[in-house]
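Researcher: Structure prediction, please.
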Amino acid sequence: MPAGRVARCTRCGSIIRHGSHPASESRTAALAASALLLYLPALMLPVMTINRFGYESEASIWSGTIGLLAERHYAIGLTVLIFSIIAPIGKLVALFVLSFGGRLLSSGPRSWIYHAIEFVGRWGMLDVLLVAVLVAIVKLGDLVRVTPGPGVWAFGLVVLMSMLASISFDPHAIWEDDG
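Model: Predicted structure follows.
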C-alpha cells in the first residue's frame, strides 16, 4: 500500500484510520469479477426440471422470469427480475467499481455506492425464499416432481462469491485519501 494513505473525516480532516490492506481491494475485485462472469450461465442454465403428468420441462432463472411476465404474473415476475437479476448484478458491478476503480471517484459517490450495496444486501435472500415458495406451490404431491438442475450450482457459486466479495471489501477504503 502506498505510504500516506489515510482515512480522513470529511468534516474536520482529522485522521480516522491509516490505510487498508491493498490485497482486500484486489480480492474483492477478483471475486466480484468472477461472480459476474459466472452470472450468465447461472441465469441461463436450468435451475429446475419439472415433471408434470409425464411432461418434462426445464426452467432457468431467465426463462422463468420471462415466462412469469408473459403469463401476466407481474408481481412475482418483477420480484424475481429485480431481486435475482438486476440487484445482484448491480451489487457485483458496484463492488468491482469500489474495489478496482473507486479511486476515480470522490469519497461522496463512493459512500453513496457503498450504502446502496448495503441496502441491496438486506434483500439478498428474497430470491431464495421466492424459489422455495414457487417450488412449494408447483409441487402437488406425487402429481408433480421438481428436481434441481445445474443452474442451482452455478447460481449458488455466484451467491457464495458475492458474499465473499462483500465480506472482503473494506468499507474504510471509501474514505481513504489518494495520498
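Model: The radius of gyration is 20 Å.
Researcher: Thanks, that helps.
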